[in-house]
């Protein structure tokens, strides 16, 4: 139990009472005696509180500094996720217009949105596209030394934004590095990187171990890093207007209106969330080994699903019989609204292969 300032102060006064001359000065209120003792008592009270917290820190994670250190050690990284909207498009021109994936829109606050699912809008008709709110930032880093676990610092996101993803490539060749969670199952010279964080939750890209696993960049080599950032803590009213960042021929006749929020978006976890997250590995660990973990991994990354089921060859062959083509295969069946089947299958495959790239994947129609 921590002692208070008053308790320390009283301890000191009791000790001073054993010295007659000092006891008399305390009784008459001599501030040259009482004020230094009060200051020392205050400092001792603070130290006592920290000591008391330290005794139970492992179980309670009471101090913010310990929570941040624990989160960094467990690689709970400060990534957010972007807001996604379904946008209605009205074509008031006399010709069809195609809105391709990758076109950029602006909302009424000049936030940048990128079209994820495009559409062809016939003359005088309306259609729907989906757009994701993010902006891209690119920088090139020149390697200063060739060593194991060489790292590159990632700049902090702009104000009111969170980092949502990154891309790492060799500047000279354009070869892209794949993200590897904790360097799992990585061979020597594989073009992969790991993302790590420190106690203040700064982020770093980390490369492999010389002669052991992964890729070690050489001195003078240039690495290009592209990050994506998304705004947090804002809302878009249904019916609010969007506009094209740049308009082509007769595209001024197109009108864009917010129709439905598909994903609310959010920033990195706050201290209060981190304090709870570190208690439950399921909520932050990206590894998947057992069959049930693949279902949970996909659901955690892509929720919500109307229906999702993942099963292996043993379950498949108990129903449909043995087939040599089923060896080392995961079967996936799902129903997911507000996205195309092709895009959902691509994302599901990416998450499964990042967890374990030894599996084949077969999608089963519902």
**H and E order:** HHHHEEEEEEEEEEEEEEEHHHEHEHE
What best-fitting shape do the alpha-carbon axes yield? extended
Largest sheet: 7 strands, mixed
- The neighbouring-strand order within the major sheet is 7-13-9-10-11-12-8
Question: What fraction of the residues are assigned to beta strands by DSSP?
Answer: 25-35%
Question: How many runs of DSSP E, i.e. beta strands?
Answer: 18
Radius of gyration: 29 Å
Please give the count of helices.
Answer: 9
Poorly predicted residue ranges: none
Q: Residue-averaged pLDDT, rounded? A: 86
Distance between the termini: 60 Å
Query: Roughly what percent helix?
Result: 25-40%
User: Which structural class do you get from the secondary structure elements?
Assistant: alpha+beta
Notes on the structure:
The chain has 366 residues and is of the alpha+beta class. It is built from 9 helices and 18 strands. Strand 3 and strand 4 form a beta hairpin. The longest helix has 30 residues. It starts with a helix and ends with a strand.
Brief account:
With 366 residues, the chain is of the alpha+beta class. It contains nine helices and 18 strands.
Provide the fold topology.
Blueprint: H1 5-16, H2 20-27, H3 31-60, H4 64-73, E1 84-91, E2 97-99, E3 104-106, E4 112-117, E5 119-121, E6 126-133, E7 135-142, E8 151-154, E9 161-170, E10 176-179, E11 192-197, E12 203-206, E13 222-231, E14 241-244, E15 254-263, H5 271-277, H6 281-284, H7 291-302, E16 307-312, H8 313-320, E17 329-335, H9 341-355, E18 360-363
Parallel strand pairs: 10-11, 17-18
Antiparallel strand pairs: 1-6, 1-15, 2-5, 3-4, 3-14, 4-6, 7-13, 8-12, 9-10, 9-13, 11-12, 14-15, 16-17
């Amino acid at each position: 139990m921590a002692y208070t300032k008053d308790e320390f102060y009283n301890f000191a006064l009791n000790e001073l009472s054993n010295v007659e001359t000092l006891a008399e000065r305390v009784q008459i209120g001599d501030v040259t005696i009482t004020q230094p003792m009060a200051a020392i008592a205050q400092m001792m009270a603070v130290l006592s509180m920290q000591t008391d917290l330290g005794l139970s820190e492992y179980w309670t994670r009471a101090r913010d500094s310990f929570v941040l250190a624990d989160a960094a050690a467990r690689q709970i990284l400060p990534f957010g996720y972007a807001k996604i909207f379904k946008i209605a498009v009205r074509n008031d021109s006399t010709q069809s217009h195609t809105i391709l994936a990758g076109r950029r829109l602006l909302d009424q606050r000049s936030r940048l949105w990128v079209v994820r699912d495009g559409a062809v809008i016939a003359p005088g008709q309306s259609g729907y596209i989906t757009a994701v709110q993010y902006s891209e930032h690119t920088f090139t880093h020149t390697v200063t030394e060739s060593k194991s676990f060489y790292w590159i610092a990632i700049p902090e996101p702009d104000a009111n934004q969170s980092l949502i993803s990154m891309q790492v490539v060799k500047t000279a060749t354009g070869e892209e590095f794949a993200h590897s969670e904790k360097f799992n199952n990585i061979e020597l010279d594989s073009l992969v990187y790991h993302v790590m964080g420190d106690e203040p939750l700064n982020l770093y890209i980390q490369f492999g171990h010389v002669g052991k696993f992964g890729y070690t960049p050489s001195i003078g080599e240039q690495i290009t890093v592209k990050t994506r950032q998304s705004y947090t803590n804002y809302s878009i009213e249904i019916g609010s207007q969007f506009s094209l960042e740049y308009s082509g021929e007769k595209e001024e006749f197109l009108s864009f209106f917010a129709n439905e929020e598909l994903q609310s978006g959010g920033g990195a976890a706050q201290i209060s969330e981190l304090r709870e997250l570190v208690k439950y590995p399921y909520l932050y660990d990206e590894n998947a080994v057992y069959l049930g973990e693949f279902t949970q991994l996909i659901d955690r990354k892509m929720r919500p699903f109307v229906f999702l089921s993942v099963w292996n060859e043993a379950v498949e062959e108990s129903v449909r019989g043995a087939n040599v083509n089923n060896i080392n295969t995961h079967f996936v069946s799902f129903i997911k609204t507000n996205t195309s089947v092709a895009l959902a299958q691509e994302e599901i495959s990416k998450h499964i292969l990042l967890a374990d790239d030894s599996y084949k994947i077969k999608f089963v129609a519902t």
